[in-house]
Write a structure and sequence with these properties.
Layout: H1 2-20, H2 29-51, H3 58-74
Helix pairs in contact: 1-2
Length: 75
Amino acid sequence: MKWLMVLGIVVVAILMTLYEWPKINKEQKREKKAFVVLTAGSVILAVVLVYFPAMPGPTQLVDAIFKPLGKLLEQ
C-alpha cells in the first residue's frame, strides 16, 4: 500500500513539473536548477516520511541544537 502513496507523490511531482517547467524562461538556468533541487528534495522527504512516519521533524532538530545554547545563556 505504501508503494501506492509513493506513486502518488511521484505523479504529483511530475504533473507539477510539467505545468511549471515551460513557464521558466530558457535563460533562467539558476531558477531551473533550484526548481529541480527543491522538487527532488521534497519528493525524497515525502517518500522517507511515508516509510518512517515517526521521524523527527525540523522543529525537533532546531530544538536539539539550540536548547543547550539557551540553557547556557540563562545562567
